[in-house]
Specification:
232 residues; alpha+beta; Aminopeptidase; 6 helices; globular
Length: 232
Amino acid sequence: MAYHRRLERGFIVTHSRLEHAEQLEALQRTCLPTLADAECFKAAHYRKHIELFPDGQFAVLDGDRVIGATTTLRRTFDFEHIDHTFADIIQGGWLTSHEPAGDWLYGADVGVEPAFRGRGIATALYAARQEVVWRLGLKGQITAGMIPGYGAVKNTMSAEEYYAGVVAGRIKDPTLSMQLGVGFEPRGLLAGYLNDPASDNYGVLIVLDGGKSVPGASRDVADEPIRDTPLR
């Protein structure tokens, strides 16, 4: 059953479909303009993701226009050995590291078109992901968030200092601060996670436990994904 959730302002959160693939590719390039091309998903990759794990792929639509999206897969994870890279996860973009019986939902990407940011769209995507966690009985969400604010200040402070400042609330990062606000907990800084100068190639491992709520997510309807419930 396809996910369908109507947000205030009429935006629709739904499962990504094959016809969205070209728009998903364009959206990622818009949201991550400095990410190395070899680590960017292309339309063919998005089609493959839908084949591999349809329950974990979401798009936000304004009419027929894709304005937000997230790509996920299932993974087991050893928190005693957290070091890994984006390339390890995406496997050339094809997500063949997906484990159908994996007990964590791993977020490979999330993006919102710049003109639509600040309207709760990213939170709605995290809510849709948390409902997948509940529906499939997973342990929670895990991802390596970027720190795109660090590249501009890397000559004045270390990545460790920047990371500590964001976690403490002294520094506001465009991405990580928002994710911590949703409820993600930081687990560690990952050097060389991906090839993107905006983050000086760093990522931050973050976890959202399956026991946590996310604004807009509903346990009562996690098994009935078609609904028209405004995000408040």
